[in-house]
Design brief:
With about 350 residues, this protein is of the alpha+beta class. Helix content is about 25%, strand content about 25%. Strands 2, 3, 4, 5, 6, 7, 8, 15 and 16 form a nine-stranded mixed β-sheet that branches. Strands 1-9-10-11-12 form a five-stranded antiparallel β-sheet. A two-stranded antiparallel sheet has the order 13-14. The model has no long low-confidence stretch (mean pLDDT about 95). Bound molecules: zinc ion. The site of zinc ion has 5 residues, from loops. Belongs to the metallo-beta-lactamase superfamily. GO terms for molecular function: hydrolase activity; metal ion binding.
Amino acid sequence: MSIIRRITHFDGTRAARRPRDRVENVRAAAQDFRREMLAGKPVPYYRSMELVRVPYPARYGYLNGFGRLAPYIHLCNRLFVVQFRSAEGLKTLLVSPSDWEHQRATPFFKRLTDSMGPFAGVGEALVFKKTSTVLQRLAEIGLAPEDVDYITYDHLHTQNLTRWLGGNGHKAIFPNAKLLVMREEWESAHALIPWQNQWYCPGGLDGIPQDRVILLDHDVMLGEGVALIRTKGHTEGNHSIVVHTPEGLKVTSENGVSLDAYAPQHSSIPGLAEYARATGAEVVLNGNTLEYGVDQYISMVQEKAIAGPWPRDERLPNIAPSSESAGYWLFPRTAPTFTVGDLHFGRLQTPVRHQAAA
Ligand SMILES: [Zn+2]
């Protein structure tokens, strides 16, 4: 386990009785953590690629902050491929590899499609934009499935991991990959209450061998340049993926759906700046299940403080949402003011194991 090292910066920062004290304790710890992480080296490879765009209720995406707009926003799900150095050589991590072709049983999406009735085919083609699959993306960049060492998701909403890791009778497509997941998220996803289960894919974790799962109880550093930081709120076991890139620390989760959500005071999306001004809110939550609202607010402040300023516009934080809201003609006036889009730093390297076998 030498690749995975515990981080203690945030231990105890949420113990204060007063929420505002918690916010400031977390913010201070995040600034320390940021300095320390930036003192190390960036990862050699980081790339994010669009997979699919799906409709998502605007009232959840910008909880409480959304004024008089279309009922849906369009969320762009991305796959992130990261390579990092470690004591055991170069490792390859996939962040948020959504097997979206096999997640349609997720009750929310199933109901949405069913509600289109006889127009489901046309309706689906209109509102679900299928750009690419995980396997197509890996083939495009020249990464073999056996070269994936780890996969992780900031949370498990809608995910079906059975093809990737070999559950439900599937042979594992990623024969060497292990899932990195917070213990709360893993346990929670196995016994959900109706408040939560509309967003999880039924059977999505069934039969996954235990030795393919690394349950995390703490914030951790993976080798050099990657950290998984617990940022609960959107779900019970939500975490953020922090990667040291040539463009600073990129922080990824789904606590917010766009940079606008992390800097609402600068947003031109109707309602957001007004909401931020009227309430003093520093962030706008992505709250479909609202598992821990106060914690989610604190977590988003934490993410911003770790990320620091975005080099392209320093008024905004250096966040790369795992699902980023994108403009769409069917959902007018929902386009975010600031878009991160696909990112690409460095060159993919063929892992040593693969070279030795060739
Ligand atoms: Zn979610």
